[in-house]
Amino acid sequence: AQSVTQPDIHITVSEGASLELRCNYSYGATPYLFWYVQSPGQGLQLLLKYFSGDTLVQGIKGFEAEFKRSQSSFNLRKPSVHWSDAAEYFCAVGANSGYSTLTFGKGTMLLVSP
Amino acid sequence: DAGVIQSPRHEVTEMGQEVTLRCKPISGHNSLFWYRQTMMRGLELLIYFNNNVPIDDSGMPEDRFSAKMPNASFSTLKIQPSEPRDSAVYFCASTFQQGYGYTFGSGTRLTVV
Questions:
Q1: What is the C-alpha separation between B74 and B103, in angstroms, rounded?
Q2: CA distances from A29 to A23, A25, A66, A93, A113 (A)
Q3: CA separation, residue A3 to residues A70, B15, B45 (Å)
């Protein structure tokens, strides 16, 4: 069975500083990997996805993520955080097979300090 | 494209009452998912449909929960009778292909008192 671990429940970053949110997954083959963002009272919005090719993927809002097979990781990064990035971030893993569904991590809450 | 549309946005009901949540997926999407989000358990997949057929309902908590998808543009999640522990945000999501990720609705915040 596939699973996702986001080891950080909360992270606080100063505005303008760089950000890295960690995600580790468990899956037997090459997975589909996603990062979503959820602002308060809103649904989840897709930031970026990986399912093949270049292991560094670019997403919306200046975010990027790198797939590292050897570490079973898919960490999310942003070089300079803006106050509007404060939200909850979810990593998800899926499979390229049949009726597979996405499995989500527990989420990381990002707080941005002035 | 209006996205995935859920109604109502908020629902407050008394224990024992029937609750029906509604979802309209994006036109052309053939898979639809119902998730429940709570602080304690995070995002849980309740059930999903492919081409209007329920594929996996193993996440449905108990017989009080039921879901239907009578056509490609509409789905309902019903709780009867509702209990306080059902209080959560319920999300509907749809996709046309697994690798492209899901599009989520804005959710229904359910409070059972």
A1: 15
A2: 17, 11, 17, 11, 39
A3: 16, 34, 13
How close is the nearest chain B Cα to the Cα of A35, in Å? 9
Tell me the pairing of strands B19-24 and B74-79: antiparallel
Backbone torsions φ then ψ of A60, nearest 5 degrees: -80, 165
Looking at residue A96, what is its pLDDT?
67
A interface residues, B as partner, C-beta within 8 Å:
32, 34, 36, 41-46, 49, 51, 90, 92, 94-96, 99-107
pLDDT tier for residue A112 given thresholds of 50, 70 and 90: very high
Looking at the partner chain, which of B42, B55, B105 has a beta carbon nearest the beta carbon of A99?
Answer: B55
Inspect the interface and report whether the beta carbons of B33 and A49 lie closer than 8 Å: no
Does the pLDDT at position B63 exceed 70?
Answer: yes
Question: How many angstroms separate the CA atoms of A84 and A43, rounded?
Answer: 16
Burial class (CB in 10 A: 0-12, 13-18, 19+), B72: middle
The DSSP 8-state label assigned to residue A30 in this structure reads P
Note whether B76 and B63 are within 8 A (CB): no
Is B43 within 8 Å of A51 when comparing Cβ atoms? no
For residues A22 and A73, what is the distance between their CA atoms, to the nearest angstrom? 7
